[in-house]
Amino acid sequence: MTDAVLVPELCRLPARELAALIRRRALSSREVLSAFLQQVDALNPRFNAIVSRVEREQVLAEADAADAAVARGDALGALHGLPQAIKDTAPVRGMRSTFGSPLFADHLPAADAIMVERMRAAGAVLVGALNMDEFAYGFTTENSHYGPSRNPRDLSRTAGGSSGGCGAAVAAGQVPVTLGSDTNGSIRVPSSLCGVWGLKPTFGRLSRRGSFPFVASLDHLGPFARSVEDLAATYDALQGPDPADPGCHAARVQPALEQIGHSLSGLRIGALGGYFEDHAGPAARRALACAAEVLHATPGVAWPDAALARAAAFVTSAAEGGALHLPTLRERAAEYEPLSVDRFIAGALQPAEWYVRAQRFRRLYRERVNALFADWDVLLAPATPVQATVIGAETFALNGADMPTRPSMGLLTQPVSYAGCPVVAAPLWPDGLQKLPIGVQVIAAPWREDLALRVARALEASGVAVSPVAGI
């Protein structure tokens, strides 16, 4: 590495800036990868974000190949020569992929999941798999088998879940972008608690082929980053129809990066009240008020049937998750995560009528939510009810009540997921940058990720929503 570039300084740079330096040959991909691998070596014992790693020799060989492509003048992807890590729910060829469970401790996939393929096609160099709640069932990444991921903003606190390793790795500067999954809030919760940007696209926007499912009718994949530009560039790289995945409904690529700098003039922006105010703590309310003030959002917008949607999301998640795992639970229940095995079993035993009713409600619910966007282009809501809780905390205080931690971190994300709307989680700092962050959800109508990202970029440009590197 050149003497002029120190490792911590390089690892603070946004992905797009690093990619530009590699394209200009001001830095080599080998230098960039070497710096980030050094960061992983130094920081991962503290944060436990990365649980499986690609062999160093393979990583550096891929970096050399990326440099050779630059030298030849080849067409380069948006993430060419950059390190990337992926939640352990997506298989990576030749690297242990456990899905957060010892049941797959020796699993070495023969092929990449399609999202891994697309990251590679964009030029990214995969360095490892990220910690998660077992089988994505949780909101804290307190994995009893592989240990908890620790929040880089405060090591005593949870990184959120189930994509906690994704949020922690980005916040700590171990990698500039990561790819996670979100069923009921598993991108937005870690983004909120770790102070990074996260995108849950429209349900059906990105292919999930090859990834281990949790709830097939609710699962989404999406990126984490420390800037909106990096978030949009990564999202664009992941887009594309996939006829082999019946759950992927995207017919074409709709690039978002080129639109994020457009004016907000004419956009109708509202801030949600009612349920989303009642279930938000003081810090979450302050963060929402700050974002709403910057964006001149109209307060008190009502979101229909939020409490019913959360209940239906619980029923749907438990039923599909339980049914998926029931054959294995019958033989190996003792090997499952102690924090979730009872919920899997209970879900498998739910009456089928509950699930049918939840799905019927979902159809009507989507219609009611979509009708909101006849009057609004973007809606704002808190992402989590409170800031990061201490690891091991069974409850947290919310407006005078004690709430169970693991299910309740999704209080504000589950109703939005159940409607399938795209959401950007924006990191705000209501108590200052030296304190804990908390996120705000920027919600748009289905298939309008561009609007959510445009509003998110405006929040970033205002300085109220930022994601500095922690732990370096």
Structure description:
- The structure is a single chain.
- The chain is globular, with a radius of gyration of 21 Å.
- Helix content is about 40%, strand content about 15%.
- An eleven-stranded mixed sheet has the order 1-3-2-8-10-9-16-17-13-11-12, sandwiched between helices.
- It has helices spanning about 5-10, 15-25, 30-45, 55-70, 115-120, 165-170, 190-195, 230-240, 275-280, 280-295, 305-330, 340-350, 350-370, 405-410, 415-420, 450-460, and strands at about 50-55, 85, 125-130, 140-145, 145-150, 150, 155-160, 175-180, 195-200, 220-225, 270, 300, 380, 395-400, 400-405, 425-430, 440-445.
- The chain has one domain (about 5-460): Amidase signature (AS) domain (Amidase signature (AS) enzymes, Alpha-Beta Complex), CATH 3.90.1300.
- It has about 475 residues and is α+β, with helices and mostly antiparallel strands.
- The longest helix is centred in the C-terminal third of the chain and has 27 residues, at about 305-330.
- The chain contains 16 helices and 17 strands.
- The mean pLDDT is about 95.
- A hairpin with a 3-residue loop joins strand 4 (about 140-145) and strand 5.
- It starts with 6 loop residues before the first helix and ends in a 10-residue tail after the last helix.
CATH domain class:
Alpha Beta
The parts where pLDDT drops under 50 for at least 5 residues are none
Distance between the termini: 18 Å
What is the 3D form? Answer: globular
Helix content: 25-40%
Q: Whole-number average pLDDT?
A: 96
Radius of gyration: 21 Å
What does the main sheet amount to?
11 strands, mixed
Order of adjacent strands in the largest pleated sheet:
1-3-2-8-10-9-16-17-13-11-12
* Strand percent estimate: 15-25%
Report the CATH superfamily. Answer: Amidase signature (AS) domain
CATH topology: Amidase signature (AS) enzymes
Number of helices: 16
How many domain units? 1
What's the count of strands? 17
CATH architecture field: Alpha-Beta Complex
Class derived from helix and strand content: alpha+beta
